[in-house]
Amino acid sequence: DVKVTQSSRYLVKRTGEKVFLECVQDMDHENMFWYRQDPGLGLRLIYFSYDVKMKEKGDIPEGYSVSREKKERFSLILESASTNQTSMYLCASSSVDGQENYGYTFGSGTRLTVV
Amino acid sequence: RKEVEQDPGPFNVPEGATVAFNCTYSNSASQSFFWYRQDCRKEPKLLMSVYSSGNEDGRFTAQLNRASQYISLLIRDSKLSDSATYLCVVSRGGSNYKLTFGKGTLLTVNP
User: Fold this and answer.
1) Residue among A75, A84, A69, A3 nearest A33 (CA)
2) Interface subset of A 37-96, CB within 8 angstroms of B
3) Which letter, b or e, does each residue of B52-75 get, where b requires 16 or more Cβ atoms within 10 Å of its Cβ?
4) What is the pLDDT of residue A1?
5) Smallest CA–CA separation between B44 and chain A, in Å?
6) Which residue among B43, B49, B102 places its CB closest to the CB of A90?
7) Is the pLDDT of residue A99 over 70?
8) What kind and span of H or E run contains A94?
9) Which uninterrupted H or E stretch holds A32?
10) What is residue A101's predicted lDDT score, i.e. its pLDDT?
11) Is the pLDDT of residue A18 over 80?
12) Separation in Å, CA of B32 to nearest CA in chain A
């Protein structure tokens, strides 16, 4: 069974801390994504990567950065955590074959609380 | 117009009922369409892709109307286990590998 694994299920961090969220996929997918999900706002794209060392900003990149040094691993970094970054963070990966998008596979999410 | 718009519900239906969800999207260049299911406090999971010809998977039927930019999901003979939030998902025009998610429709199936 294909898998996307997020390193932590629950995380509590202090304001101002640098936070690393890790995501690993075993499907050899080219594309990886970070979303956050908040009540009433749905899923919002933070950053995505379509290849090793390649990244593009999503809709809400402010306060975040990413790293993709290996194909299977995509890290989200909160440079200086703030309380408005308290959220559920979801990593996803996908493969696109020409014009065919097969959909995303999501990790189980990291619920981050910044205090 | 929002990129992907769904009725948020909630929909409360008895077991055995047929329920339909609708979704509209704004970008006529979108190429890929999906329905995802999300259980409470879990990650979204792919329920089915949606094709122009319409497609069926057991009790679930999905339809796409490109002219009207409209997607639907029909669930027949609802089960208690169908209770979840259903997300309409559309690829972004010009970027088939990026998806936009609707905010979801909450379904509760009652005994």
Assistant:
1) A75
2) 40-43, 45, 48, 50, 90, 94, 96
3) eeeeeeeebbbbbeeeebebbbeb
4) 67
5) 7
6) B43
7) no
8) strand A87-94
9) strand A31-38
10) 77
11) yes
12) 6
